[in-house]
Design brief:
246 residues, Glutamine Phosphoribosylpyrophosphate, subunit 1, domain 1, six-stranded antiparallel sheet, 5 helices, 34% helix, globular
């Protein structure tokens, strides 16, 4: 049996002014079976609470986890212990997502007659009215780490190609406009170096204390603005390389 592998690149920035998130949409179950699946999901009550989740890894695990989170929210008997929209804090949201992810992974592992089981990771970002913006990276086992002032960005999937630019330019004081540029250039570097990551892209901006998704953008293959930015970045790198002497 072939299980779709949601090997991707997703990145989230936690800044003083808000959060910027970006994901690709490529999924593959072999070189001849490439498909497009959304990997960014929004849950919100505008003005009250917002949660955005990005996913990487086994498609069966990530889709089932998202479906169960939706089911729990729609359940008439939902409680703050089961629903990410009723949870009193973002920490509790991360715990609910982590527990659901770990449970789904265990169940699917039991069904796989393979030496290597299914695995997935997630980035959970959001804010509740009156609370702080928070962003977590959820591991397959359900545990998680949190973005901080010292490390104001999180990545999942094929992150190594896009990390250097984030390390150099992203700080908590980075503006939301510059943050969008940074994540797009980070993605551009990844697209050039890894065929398992591909267009279209989903970009999202959540401004501090709005508790709502402020901006979303789907960037299709051939997008002129993205192409121009990519070409300008390549030209700037070539120019900088030519200026360096050893």
């Amino acid at each position: 049996m072939v299980w779709g592998w949601n090997m991707t690149y997703c990145v989230g920035l936690l800044l003083n002014d808000g959060m910027v998130l970006l994901s690709d949409t490529r999924t593959n179950a072999g070189l001849d079976n490439i498909a497009t699946y959304r990997k960014m999901f929004h849950f919100e009550e505008p003005g009250e609470k917002v949660v955005t989740i990005m996913t990487a890894g086994s498609l069966s695990v990530t889709q089932t986890t998202i479906a169960r989170l939706r089911e729990a929210m729609e359940d008439h008997d939902a409680t703050p212990e089961t629903s990410i929209l009723l949870a009193p804090t973002m920490l509790k949201v991360a715990q609910i997502v982590g527990n659901t992810l770990a449970q789904v992974r265990r169940e699917i592992d039991e069904k796989l007659s393979m030496s290597q089981g299914a695995s997935a990771t997630m980035i959970v970002a959001g804010q509740r009215k009156g609370g702080a913006m928070r962003m977590f990276l959820i591991y397959p086992e359900g545990n998680f780490i949190e973005a901080t002032e010292d490390t104001p960005f999180l990545q999942i999937g094929e992150h190594k190609y896009g990390k250097p630019i984030l390390d150099r330019v992203v700080k908590p004081t980075t503006s939301l406009a510059d943050a969008q540029k940074a994540v797009l250039l980070s993605m551009d570097s990844t697209l050039r170096s890894n065929l398992s990551v591909g267009m279209p892209l989903d970009l999202c901006v959540i401004r501090r204390d709005e508790c709502a998704v402020g901006m979303t953008r789907r960037i299709e293959a051939g997008d002129e603005a993205f192409r121009a930015m990519s070409e300008a970045w390549s030209a700037a790198l070539r120019d900088g390389f030519a200026r360096i002497t050893v």
